[in-house]
Design a protein that fits this description.
Largest sheet: 7 strands, mixed
Number of domains: 1
Helix content: 40-55%
Radius of gyration: 17 Å
Strand order of the largest sheet: 3-4-2-5-1-6-7
Strand content: 5-15%
CATH class: Alpha Beta
Order of helices and strands: EHEHHHEEHHEHEHEHHHHH
Structural class: alpha/beta
Distance between the termini: 25 Å
Number of helices: 13
CATH topology: Rossmann fold
């Protein structure tokens, strides 16, 4: 059965979508069957992989609101070693429509349940908000939440609110919800501030911050405009090597051995 992780942070611009895509691509390179679920109405994960979000006729909206099976909506990209459940601007209306539906917090979990056995990893890219869509992502994340945190001071302010939301979901929707890990992003080793933020986050989450830290990278910022993950766009960049290391760290934590050849080539 697939490991299902939700990527969550209510603050935008912290590398959440980039982390979901980059990690998914490297997990695919390491032989895992990966489904990336775009749960964001902005559809950034969809467009960052070169898919025209305006042309999506069957996607996340149809799955959540229309009851469309996940299987026929998934797009496969053998080059990137990723499968994608795409989003579209239509999903913006789902927030209101979900309110009227039965088991509104569990729509995504129930939809994924029928197809998860086809994959080793399901990565859910949640919206940058604490919305009903995000609650769906959290309720579906049976193996935990991955929290990307930008290495800047303002990124610290929302952590308490996010932790409270996770606790509320535990109390009312999904008691087993856990934090799989916190990934520090956009790290600039030239600044003392970045080091201080990493230190503060490790105090807040003493056992849950991944050892791998993602550096600030121009190549990483450029990759979405070319519709490619960093593993394809700039595989020799520092950010690519960091996400490769993060994939290995997660695989090791999940008890999955990465072949030596892949480790050397990652």
């Amino acid at each position: 059965m697939a490991k299902i992780y939700a990527f969550v942070n209510q603050k935008g611009g912290v590398g959440k979508t980039t982390s979901a895509i980059s990690l998914g691509a490297y997990l695919g390179q390491y032989g895992q069957r990966v489904l990336l679920v775009d749960l964001d109405p902005q559809a950034n994960a969809t467009s960052s992989l070169g898919i025209d979000k305006r042309g999506i006729k069957n996607g996340m909206y149809e799955v959540l609101i229309g009851g469309q099976p996940v299987g026929p909506t998934v797009l496969h990209n053998p080059q990137y070693k990723l499968s994608v459940l795409p989003s579209s601007p239509a999903l913006a209306g789902a927030e209101i429509e979900l309110i009227e539906l039965e088991r509104r917090e569990h729509r995504l979990a129930e939809a994924i349940d029928g197809t998860a056995s086809r994959y080793d990893y399901v990565l859910i890219d949640c919206p940058p908000s604490l919305s009903l869509l995000t609650v769906n992502g959290l309720a579906a994340a049976k193996d935990g939440v991955v929290i990307p945190v930008q290495c800047e001071y303002l990124a610290l302010e929302g952590l308490g609110q996010l932790a409270q939301t996770i606790q509320r979901v535990r109390s009312s929707v999904f008691p087993e919800l856990v934090i799989r890990g916190v990934v520090m992003t956009m790290f600039d080793s030239r600044t003392r501030l970045a080091l201080d933020v990493v230190s503060e986050v490790r105090k807040y989450f003493p056992t849950q911050v991944f050892q791998t830290i993602i550096p600030r990278s121009v190549r990483l910022a450029e990759a979405p405009s070319f519709g490619m993950p960093i593993s394809v766009f700039a595989p020799d960049s520092s950010a690519a090597k960091a996400y490769s290391a993060l994939a290995r760290e997660i695989l090791a934590g999940d008890g999955i051995q990465v072949p030596v050849m892949d480790q050397e080539g990652g």
